[in-house]
Every structure is written in C-alpha cells, then in structure tokens.
Design goal:
With 205 residues, the protein is mainly β. The protein folds into two domains: 4-88, Immunoglobulins (Immunoglobulin-like); 105-203, Immunoglobulin-like. Helices cover 0% and strands 56% of the residues. The chain starts with a strand and ends with a strand.
C-alpha cells in the first residue's frame, strides 16, 4: 500500500464549507473517505489543499475512482470532480505530471446571481466528458427542495475537447426563492455522481 498525494485547487465562487474526498474500488466499494472542514464559508481567490490518501485493496491491483466534492452542508454538494486511477497493493505511487484535472462541467447560463422568471429557465454550458449521455439538471432551493429538473442533451463533433449542453428547465415556486442550478452526471460504478457544477440563482414565480 502506498499513500496517494492529492493536490486540490479550490476556485473563488464555491461557497463550500466542507471538502469531501472519496476513493472507490472498481466494483464501487468505498475504500476511503476523508472530510476536511474548510472553516471559512467563502473561499477568497484560489486555494490549494493537500491531502494524503491511504487505502488497502485485495489482490495486487485494481481500477479506482477518486471523487472530490465541495459541500455547503450535509448532502448539499456544490461541485464534484473525479479521476480514474490504477490502485496498486504495494510499490511507489506514480502520478503523471501535469496531473491537473479541470472541472468537467462549465455552466455558462445562467450566470451566478441570475434570475429565472415565469416558471422557465435556460441552462447551458460546456462539458468535457467522453460520454454523450444526457446530463441531469436540477433546480434546488436553499432548503434542499428540488423545484425543477430536466435532462440536458450533449452535442458536438467526435473528438471535440468540449461539447455543449442546453436545456429549458421548468420550475414551480410560489415566491421569490434563493436556489441553485445543479448540473451533474452519475456514471460511477454504483451510480455515484462523478462530476457536478452549480451556480446560485433566484427563481421568481
């Protein structure tokens, strides 16, 4: 067993309080979970967080999935990113350089602080994923209630680094509601969310 060094860059605008790191085996088994209290409700500018990931596996090697998540609170993820690894039971870690893994989902519309009106809002952006499966889009109030949802089709030519997605998402609120647009894909071995992006918005009736 060799610890995996992980360097995580947190970007301004993610109002996260907790950083969650999980390592899953190739069958989806949770091998390790670490929760880091970021202490500050706001991240000012760019911030690096270093962590060492210890794990044990049966056999000499297997594929793994490393998931990094920023939470606002319990069960309220703001951003998720992940990368595939080959896990070795023994030996030294070999991490390719550069090992920077960009955020796979980039929400362009609505912008942070944008508003939806008349029960409908357009959500669009770019995605850097191998899969052409639709993304899942949800509108979630700050109380955690899903007030709207829709699938977003992914389009682009084969070989494109980034592809586009768009969806017209209907919603229902009775009053002006502070919410978030959440876009994600859940293609982990057991349906884990592997990539997620979100932006704060306001929904008007």
């Amino acid at each position: 067993m060799s610890p995996i060094p992980v360097e995580i860059q947190l970007i301004s605008g993610k109002e996260g309080r907790f950083l969650r790191i999980e390592l899953h085996g190739e069958d989806g088994t949770l091998l390790m979970r670490k929760l880091i209290d970021l202490q500050l409700p706001e991240i000012s500018g760019s911030r690096l967080v270093d962590a060492m990931i210890d794990f044990e596996i049966p056999g000499s090697s297997q594929n793994g999935l490393l998931i990094v998540q920023i939470d606002q609170g319990a069960n309220f993820p703001l951003a998720i990113n992940s990368t595939n690894l080959v896990l070795l039971a023994s030996g030294e870690s070999r991490i390719p350089v550069p090992a920077w893994q960009p955020q796979a989902i980039d929400i362009q519309q609505p912008a942070p602080g944008g508003e939806g009106n008349d029960g409908m809002i357009t959500v669009s952006g770019f995605v850097q994923l191998d899969s052409d499966q639709p993304l899942k889009v949800q509108l979630i109030s700050l109380e955690g209630k899903v007030v709207g949802q829709r699938l977003a089709g992914v389009g682009g030519s084969p070989g494109d680094s980034y592809k586009s997605f768009t969806a017209q998402v209907p919603y229902r609120v009775d009053q002006r509601t502070q919410s978030r647009v959440v876009v994600y894909c859940d293609d982990g071995p057991n349906g884990e969310i592997t990539h997620l992006a979100s932006v704060p918005i306001v929904l008007n009736p």
